[in-house]
Write a structure and sequence with these properties.
The protein is an all-alpha fold. The protein contains 22 helices and no strands. Helix 1 (13-33) packs parallel to helix 6 (114-126), helix 12 (242-250) runs parallel beside helix 15 and helix 19 crosses helix 22. It is globular, with a radius of gyration of 21 Å. The protein starts with 12 loop residues before the first helix and ends with a helix. 47% of the residues are buried.
Length: 403
């Protein structure tokens, strides 16, 4: 009698085994993490998110948003439900990280086949830096969760899903943009990838689906824009920190990774537009973009070389860190310690998988990944900024191994 595994919720046993392994690794890391002397003391960006979340609980956020607001509000919701517990934050984010593997598996299954999708699920479940950053008070896990679910619902809409599927995709990707606005740069590449993937095969993107997707984006971002308009009387679509980040990532002397660190130097930097007479956040944002354009126009060759350097950093195997020294903070636990070779292998094998399999999915992935990479390279590169691509590249890498 033949023994066949019975799918659970339409998913094969191998997927659930990967989730189980992911749970075990995350519990192992969390048990090590809570014993460290620095646990419970957020640093750099984590400290800013923590303070903003506490401010939201205490008095709301009446001012315009300097930083994207969704993650601080998410953090405030966790604090309101369970107190200011970083262990609870880590547990909730670990659940989000594992839940993001479902849309990644479904996309991988359609793009590269079931075997590659299962391999991708195992990679995503065990990837050391995904586990590490799920334990950090940072926006990357929430952003990746929203991005992956948004892309999955987008693909379902392209395949002819229900009438609300494109709208839901737009709302999810809008929420991702309110978490990390750089994804807005990548969305036109998603449109281009969809057009190339479906029109070149004789398919078509329904106008009503495209309109519903665009409506979801507008409706999802509009509350943040309206809040900023009421606070400042100026148009700030999401947040006002884009200009300063663009300047710091492209000024003369920029190395592509490290902007001005928080502290006295950061405070002095942020006073520059104020001293130039720019009182509002919107005016300061425009001032920074103007200074960045001046830097680029003054030395376009230098800027082109810098873009090349940042592209190399984005694609390269070393993990560029600008918040914490990874070697120190990952050394305390085996599940996150051996992180150095994963990204390089993923990029090389993922490229091989896309070349071998081809088809709609690999084409869409290649175009979107290029757009997402551009959205990072235009500013500056850090390990956590390229991390959301891992669950998408993982099935492609598995297909590369199979090839």
């Amino acid at each position: 009698m033949e023994n066949k595994s019975v799918p659970v919720f339409g998913l094969p046993a191998g997927f659930w085994l990967a989730i189980g392994a992911g749970v075990a690794l995350r519990l192992w890391y969390l048990s090590d993490l809570v014993q460290q002397p620095w646990f419970g003391y957020p640093l750099v960006d984590s400290l800013t998110f923590d303070r903003t979340a506490q401010q939201i609980l205490a008095q709301g956020h009446p001012a315009a948003f300097f930083r994207p607001p969704l993650y601080p509000y998410f953090l405030a919701a966790v604090y309101a439900a369970a107190g200011r517990s970083f262990a609870v934050v880590a547990i909730v984010q670990s659940l989000l990280g594992l839940a993001a593997l479902y849309p990644a598996y479904r996309l991988g299954e359609r793009w590269f086949g079931r075997a590659a999708a299962l391999g991708g699920a195992w990679i995503g479940a065990c990837y050391p830096l995904r586990i590490f950053f799920e334990g950090e008070v940072l926006d990357v896990t929430l952003f990746a969760f929203l991005l992956l679910w948004g892309l999955w619902t987008l693909w379902r809409g392209l395949e002819g899903g229900g009438p609300l599927t494109p709208l839901l995709s737009g709302l999810l990707l809008a929420a991702a943009a309110v978490t990390r606005p750089n994804v807005i740069v990548a969305l036109p590449f998603a449109v281009l990838g969809a057009a190339l993937a479906f029109w070149r095969r004789g398919g078509a993107v329904r106008p009503t689906a495209a309109a519903a997707w665009a409506l979801g984006l507008v409706v999802g971002i509009a509350p943040t824009t309206i809040h900023n308009w009421r606070a400042e009387g100026a148009v700030i679509p999401v947040a006002a920190n884009g200009g300063v980040n663009f300047y710091l990532g492209n000024e003369r002397g920029a190395d592509g990774v490290t902007p001005v660190p928080p502290g006295l130097r950061w405070e002095a930097t942020m006073l520059r537009p104020v001293r130039a007479g720019q009182a509002s956040l919107a005016a300061q944002d425009r001032w920074w973009y103007a200074r960045a354009r001046e830097e680029i126009v003054a030395a376009p060759g230098r800027w082109a070389r810098l873009l090349g350097v940042k592209t190399g950093i984005f694609l390269g195997a070393p993990e560029p860190s600008n918040n914490k020294a990874l070697a120190h903070f990952t050394a305390v636990s085996f599940p996150v310690r051996h992180y150095r070779w994963w990204w390089g292998a993923l990029v090389c094998l993922g490229a091989l998988g896309c070349l071998e399999v081809r088809g709609r999915g690999p084409l869409f992935l290649a175009v979107f990944a290029a757009g997402y990479g551009a959205s990072v390279v235009l500013f500056f590169v850090a390990e956590r900024y390229r991390l959301p691509l891992v669950p998408l590249l993982a099935p492609a890498a598995a297909a590369g191994v199979l090839a």
